[in-house]
Amino acid sequence: MDRSLALPTPVPAPATRHLALLVLIAIAASHLLNDLMQSVLVAVYPMVKDAYQLTFTQIGTITLTNQVTASLLQPLVGWHTDRRPVRYALSIGMGFTFAGLLLLSSATSFPALLAAAALVGVGSSVFHPEASRIARLSSGGRFGLAQSIFQVGGNLGSSLGPLLAALVILPRGQGSIAWCSVGSLIAMIVLFGVGRWYGRQRQGQWATSHRHVAGTGHFTPEVIKVLGILAALVFSKYIYLASLTSYYTFYLKSRFALSTQEAQIQLFVFLLAVALGTVLGGPIGDRIGRKRVIWASILGVAPFTLAMPHANLIGTEILAVIIGFILASAFSAILVFAQEIVPGRVGMISGLFFGLAFGIAGIGAAVLGYVADRTSIEVVFQLCSFLPLIGCITAFLPDHPAVRTAPDR
Length: 409
What we know:
Growth Hormone, Chain: A, 17 helices
């Protein structure tokens, strides 16, 4: 890896720092709205499954369509905007999400559901790499903390999706999704203001000091090996999360005879635990090292995942909260670790890892749906309980990524 001397990070003036903090809060709030809108798709699965007599394989295919459109485009969006930043890309991306939700509210067939899922995925593909870049730019050098603030907004939004479905969409029907899409319009307005701030940063002296480091990271064999390990850890995390986010409600209904609304509330509790756990991963990684956070988050959750398929209802609810809280702290640490070993390519690395996470979740949901149709949803949870053991490969990560602590454009 490149062990050249570190370049100084420009320190913005107090007024600029205050404005940057407001931008970070705006990005986190927009992430909340974005992922809330995205999670509506998953939250209405029980309703559309019953309404259109869908199989678990078809439910998994909807997730796959959504996540593949997001995952395939994200690295391309990040790669392009590393070189040619687009000021209002975030607002444009949110427009795709808005269109997808409107289509979802009026879809009457499985192909229409797939098209809606694809549009929502395109919106996500534009949002995440660009928003991650702006979160880093507004971090004041506390990259892990900034990523956690950014991530917790998204996870809070994801957790609220099932609650929105249970309290609003399920009682009022599929057409009420159109009213929920108002959140996308609000996010578009907020992101328009963020785009104006980003444009000023690029034109000003602070942005000029960033421009020369864009694309300075090199994909050496050692870097590729570390990225491969990080990708395998993302695989274990997101396949397991896919089993819960897509099928936890069905598992609770099948094994414990919960109603759809009761199961949706439990999904909300689990996703809320994920949101709270996300808060810790980044700042703790800033203090004690990202490798230690990854160790504790991935491998540390294994005893709880292995116990969950054998627990009663109360035990399952408690274990789900523990699992969500611990497992969620990994992604911020993994993402910043990857950004630090390939400096100057924040957009591409963010897009790559967000895209990888979404793609793995989508493929995993489709495969797990097929397995559930052929066996049972309980078997799916038993198989997935072993995935966190992949966390053992964290031992092959370097203790500290050798990076140039150069600022990012």
